[in-house]
Amino acid sequence: MNKRLALAIALIFLSSLAVSVPLIKSQSVNNIVINPDGSVTGTNAIQQVGNTYTLTDNITGNIEVQKSYAVLNGSGYRLTGGIDLNDPNNYPIIKNNYPNLSISNVTIENFYITNGAITSNGGGNYTIYDNYLSGDASISLIGNCYYTNITYCTIIGSNTTQAIVMIDGADYNKITECNIIGGFAEDFSLNNTLDRNYWGNYLTEHPNAKKIDNSGIWNLPYSAASEQDNHPLVQPVAIPLTGASTAAVLEFPTLAILPLFFFSLLFVAVIVRHRKTPKLSK
Question: CB neighbours of 175 closer than 8 A, spacing ≥ 6?
Fold first, then answer.
């Protein structure tokens, strides 16, 4: 097959695929509440099945959970958090004393608040699993917040704030197998467990550390506040976010692809015409 013809056919194929891809746009919302009775107000981008609440789109706004034993599944979508106007402390996601909440599979970044992507003022027994969190104090547990498990998360702080902050009686919480970029801070909190985490500044703190054989663990513990990770990881943990793909959440207008599609058709027509034109004998 003529190389130019093959190239043109490939262009048409790729253009047709691009045109057929369903486009998902981010919804603009303000304050979103999962109410004590289980109902959802403020968005139609959360699907409820029993006690499980699943994001079906990217969301801009605050999700306030007021129901115990709720499971919030991000399904791989992105939450850009905002300010909860009903709470003078600007707490997003979790607030007050609603225990046994689970948050998983969500990306939270570029939020414009000061207290973190996931914040609790009291409560406890939270499960925070398989999330990507980025910003000022990405996780803040405040005031008598106990027995929270944080695992398989990438947690990134800012230049001025730690990635994880536990203050005023946030005790007996556990952080394992996370990527922590920005450190860990405690204030009047004790007995929290750190184990098998990847620390972004580990080699800055321990430039002479060595790997322990093929264990994937450094030979020196990582100290953070009053706690210590005795098995710091050499390599970052692979975070298994699933659901919405990166391509699906990008906004890309279909009309921008149509010129490529028609240009490819024209290109093929010219090549076919050229191939059919008889060559003049000399």
Answer: 150, 151, 164, 184, 192, 193, 194, 195, 197
Contact 47, 53 (CB under 8 A): yes
**Could you tell me which of 28, 88, 36 has the C-alpha nearest to residue 67?**
36
**How far is 184 from 104, CA to CA, in rounded Å?**
21
What is the amino acid identity at position 63?
Answer: I
The residue whose two tokens read 């691009």 is: 18
Beta bridge partners of 47: 54
Contact predicate 157/137, CB 8 Å: yes
Q: Can you name the residues that pair with 223 across neighbouring β-strands?
A: 228
Residue 4: pLDDT over 80: no
The whole model's pTM is what?
0.72
pLDDT in tens, 46-81: 999 999 999 999 988 778 888 888 899 999 998 887
Phi and psi at residue 52, to the nearest 5°: -100, 130
Crossing angle of the two packed helices 3-20 and 258-276, in degrees rounded to 10: 150
